[in-house]
Amino acid sequence: MSAALALLASLLWGVADYGGGAITRRMPALTVVVLSQTAAAAVLAVAVTATGGWGGAGAALWYAVAAGVIGPFALLAFYRALALGPMGVVSPLATVGVLVPIGVGLFLGERPGAVQGLGILVAIAGVALAGGPQRGGAAASRQVLVLTLGAAFAFGAVLALIAHASSGGALLLTLCVQRLTNAVIGAGMLAAAARRQPLGLRSGGRALPSLTAVGVADVAANGLYAAASHLGSVAVAAVLASLYPVVTALMARGLLKERLLRVQVVGAGLAVAGTLILAAG
After folding, report:
1. Rounded CA gap, 104 and 28, in Å?
2. Of 78, 229, 238, 256, whose CB neighbour count within 10 A is largest?
3. Which residues, in sequence order, are CB contacts of 96 under 8 Å at separation 6+?
4. Cα–Cα separations (whole angstroms), residue 244 to 18, 32, 192
5. How far apart are CA 237 and CA 17, in angstroms?
6. Dihedral-angle region of residue 141 (phi above 0 means left; psi in -120 to 50 means alpha; beta otherwise)
7. In the 8-state DSSP scheme, what is residue 53?
8. Which of 243, 200, 221, 227 is nearest to 40 (CA)?
9. DSSP assignments along 133-156, one per residue
10. What is the distance between the alpha carbons of residues 43 and 110, in angstroms, rounded to a whole number?
11. CA geometry: angle at 135 spanning 132 and 138, to 5°?
């Protein structure tokens, strides 16, 4: 059951990444982030109310608030990178955010073993190669790489904060508070940006079903991964859930006909391999 839940989480994360990136190619990334996260927050608020989960509120939820503040900026950078660069490169590179939880462990006194050290080196090599050369194909620009890696480490911080906030067991409430904070912060960003550029809110209304699906898939994947970690081996669940870039890359290749340079394929593969080694270590 744990393996099945982790694989389903991987599938949903991959679909959400592809969907968010594809929609961002038609409308501003900020609009996609705000509308998808607001829709997810609404669904979660209904779920928490229906299950009576509001009574589980405690001081640990401030970590969920912090995750909610970081989340919109991470998603904005990630969706922008997906819109500007090859999805088959951007999505795998985003998995290096696992270095953040490892860094937290180091700060708390843990020391990586030989396997984790190998994983770090492999992931760094993947980052170096996945940008590709500037000639001969769809290379990932410096802007795309900066956006992707910034989003990756922000995602890692969000995962660490959510893990701490839900340590008491109130996972659904934690996710709800995080997404509600996402929506509030995103709305403020949207209001500020509306003064400078059109935000495509009219087209966003037409795309609301797709945006809702993206937001809900992302939330569901978080919940499934947490459940998989509680039901079985955390390491195995992390390895299986880390396969989501494969889903995004396959969807991008099949639906968008993306073609990657050989060095980009090698780099993206190393990034995923490094992440898997880290998770297994």
Report:
1. 33
2. 78
3. 123, 126, 127, 149, 152, 153, 271, 274, 275
4. 10, 20, 33
5. 19
6. beta
7. G
8. 221
9. -SSSS-PPPHHHHHHHHHHHHHHH
10. 38
11. 60
Q: Six-digit token pair at 149?
A: 């890696």
Report the distance separating Cα 90 and Cα 20, nearest Å.
13
What torsion do the CA atoms of 201, 202, 208, 210 make, to the nearest 10 degrees? -90
Tokens 């003064």 — which residue? Answer: 195
Report whether 159 contacts 43 (CB < 8 A): no
The DSSP code for 256 is S
Contact 154, 74 (CB under 8 A): yes
Cα separation, 220 vs 215, in Å, equals: 9
∠201-204-210 over CA atoms, to 5°? 165
Q: What does the pLDDT profile of the chain (281 residues) look like in tens digits?
A: 777 888 898 889 888 888 887 888 778 878 888 888 888 888 889 988 988 878 777 888 899 999 999 988 888 888 888 888 777 778 777 777 777 766 776 676 766 677 767 877 787 777 667 665 544 445 567 888 889 889 988 988 887 788 778 777 788 888 899 989 988 898 888 777 766 666 556 655 677 788 888 888 988 887 787 777 777 766 667 666 777 777 777 777 777 676 767 777 787 788 778 777 766 66
Q: Sign of torsion, CA 112 113 116 121?
A: positive
Cβ(122)–Cβ(249) under 8 Å? no
**Nearest in space to 86 (alpha carbons), one of 124, 130, 128:** 130
For the record, the structure tokens of 58 come out as 């405690």
